[in-house]
Amino acid sequence: MATEVKVPTLGESITEATLGAWLKQPGDPVAQDEAVASLETDKVAVELPSPTAGTMGEQRAKVGDTVAVGAVVATIEAGAAATPVNPEGAGENIAPKEAPREEEEDGPHLTLSPAVRRIVLEHHLDPSKIKGTGKDGRLTKDDVLAAAETHKAEPAPAAAAPSPKPPPAPAQAGERREERVRMTRLRQTVARRLKEAQNTAAILTTFNDVDMSAVMAARTRYKDLFEKKHGIRLGFMGFFVKAAALAAHDVPAVNASIDGEEIVYHDYFDVSVAVSAPQGLVVPVVRDAQAMSFAEIEKAIADFGKRAKDGTLTIEEMQGGTFTISNGGVFGSLLSTPIINPPQSAVLGMHRIEERPVVVDGQIVARPMMYLALSYDHRLIDGREAVTFLVRMKEALEDPTRLLIDL
Fold it and tell me: What are phi and psi of 214, to 5 degrees?
């Protein structure tokens, strides 16, 4: 008797997903709760577990198909996979062995994220033979991609080599080629939401610049003690999150949202921090940032960044958020006008730090300066409030003592 594999509930307001990859093929042994497929939602990739142990049966959807929550996408047949035949024993059966699950192999790094598992399967790699550089020795996407490149470079055994296929014809002089690649569900969602934000909100951007001398001096002075005590590097984001929380306390509209004809004010500061992931930009939420220490903020953001790269962020970790910070400076951006993330009403853009001439006490001196950009919904936030918010941030960053005594 076959057991149906259905698309589970994926999170609030998410009604469908895209089938990203099949992790099991018909006839493969499957353990209960073992992942048989990877699903791509609007926010993250999630694994589709088997409801029972048995053998992979029919696949009722293809890679790239859109599948609704509750839809049957596969079946699991009762019983183990067919017993293999001993090629040297005239039909004599070999004692069956239970196929080990990937998560249960020796070594902590073999707990594979959906993104890593997909690459392992695509390139027919043995994860137990790849050295992981992630936390606790886990495999990252870069580890597996490097192993795949090495695997490609290794010559295949001559006896197993099939008849070579003719190489693709080289491009002729002047020939122009195109390649069409289907947009991922995440990229489609990002495109739709950004356009909706532009169509709905009255977006305006205001700018200021910040002398980063004091923050950089504090990092230089305390970075070793900070890392020794907390086990994490003292970065810039802790300063910016704390400064933004302090400024939002003085300008609450920046941390508010519009719901119909009402304005919703929040007494908490949940910061969506934009981080880069293999499938695109994602924005996990640091909740109650106003009550967190520098170390707690830095640890939360570092953990989000690593798990975004590994593809292990959950949907719940990216829902909500009352304000967004995006750091384009890590990619070299000098200035930008970020787009707000509805229903939020404001987003802060950080940029690269570079020495520029400024006037201090009547003298022209070089200072490490950063441009800050605040894009905001003008339906809710006035220009005076937007400017005041950035001035409060500038004051706190140029004199970080303010962050400690709440000024």
Answer: -65, -40
Q: Which of 136, 378, 399, 406 is labelled catalytic?
A: 378
How confident is the model over 161-186, as pLDDT tens digits? 555 556 666 667 778 888 888 777 77
Q: Is residue 193 part of a domain?
A: no
* 49-89 pLDDT tens trace: 898 999 998 898 888 888 888 889 899 988 754 433 333 44
Which amino acid is it at 177? Answer: R
Reply yes or no on whether 142 is catalytic. no
The answer to whether residue 266 scores a pLDDT higher than 50 is yes
Cβ neighbours for 91, distance < 8 A, ≥ 6 positions apart: 85
Q: Which domain holds residue 60?
A: 2-81+101-153
Q: What is the CATH number of the domain that holds 209?
A: 3.30.559.10
In a domain, 181, yes or no: no
Catalytic residue selected from 126, 250, 382, 399? 382
Q: What percentage of the chain carries pLDDT values higher than 70?
A: 82
User: What CATH number is attached to the domain comprising 69?
Assistant: 2.40.50.100
230 a catalytic residue: no
The whole-angstrom separation of Cα 240 and Cα 143 is 32
